[in-house]
Amino acid sequence: MKKLILFGASGNLGREIAKKAMQQSYDLTVVVRNAQKAEKLSSITSKFIITDITNASSIANICQGFDIVVSALGKSVSPNDNSKCTFNEIDLIANTNILQEAIKSGIRKFVYISALHSEKYLHLEYFRVHHEFSELLKKSGINYSIIKPPAIFSGFLDMMEMAKKGQLINIGKGDKRTNPIYEVDLATACVDSITPDNVLMEIGGSTIYTRRQLFEIIQEEVNPSKSVKHLPLWTFKLMLPMLKIFNKNLYDKFAFFLAAIQVDTIAPQIGQMNFEEYIKMKNSDSTKNLGVND
Ligand SMILES: NC(=O)c1ccc[n+]([C@@H]2O[C@H](COP(=O)([O-])OP(=O)(O)OC[C@H]3O[C@@H](n4cnc5c(N)ncnc54)[C@H](OP(=O)(O)O)[C@@H]3O)[C@@H](O)[C@H]2O)c1
Question: Which domain holds residue 41?
């Protein structure tokens, strides 16, 4: 049985990768930052390493005895994430430290989740760090998989709360197109990519939507009595330079969003589930959970 160590397992994609890896009979160990995160994954695996991945010395020899490394580690792009770490510290430095450990321990396969078209937008921090780490991985000599999705469905979950309150805002025309992918479909591709050599895969969902359609699907499902608000692009552009001075982390996220909404971001249509079904499923889950808590 191949031994797999997974970083970023507590994330939306990482959790699904953990489930797929178990289904495909890998001997799975997940790395998490604290016991609460481990507890939330305990229905999937009982093998945990609890450590601080931002500290190179605390991950010394972490890959020893494993065959495969999967990293779904990355700073969250959610506006609700207030963590102090930067994209550079997590997506680039922490992943590079993991890669060095992987090289040292003779790891046979390293799977990394990058971002579609990262190579085109190197002036934006989010894309630069994904691209730079992908290049380091390619040159490392380790057999790699670099998986490049556009957006992941779970990245839209924050918007369900906004839509409930009638606070969902579309910036600009919303006419640019993309095909986000369901995290389970993406996780399947990540785990399936372990066997073949040196995989570079762009992968999106089955259906292409405009940004505006994605918002309208959410609004219609969670609260059709409210409607999506619209703001012109210039309002957002005006705010960015100020944000850069006062909150660089938030600036990097908003600069990424601004770039993303102005271009078509379409990957090969591989995923199975469509966005309408996904939002319906998540909305029904959240209604059931509310019922339990009540
Ligand atoms: N979401 C998207 O639409 C999208 C699109 C393209 C590419 N990607 C890439 O796909 C990967 C996975 O995305 P995702 O949506 O699953 O992200 P996510 O839900 O935000 O999960 C990120 C993971 O990284 C961990 N992490 C972040 N900062 C950390 C820190 N300081 N210390 C320890 N762990 C830390 C998180 O741990 P905690 O749970 O402890 O915070 C979590 O396990 C990322 O590389 C992302 O850039 C995402």
Answer: 3-155+181-204
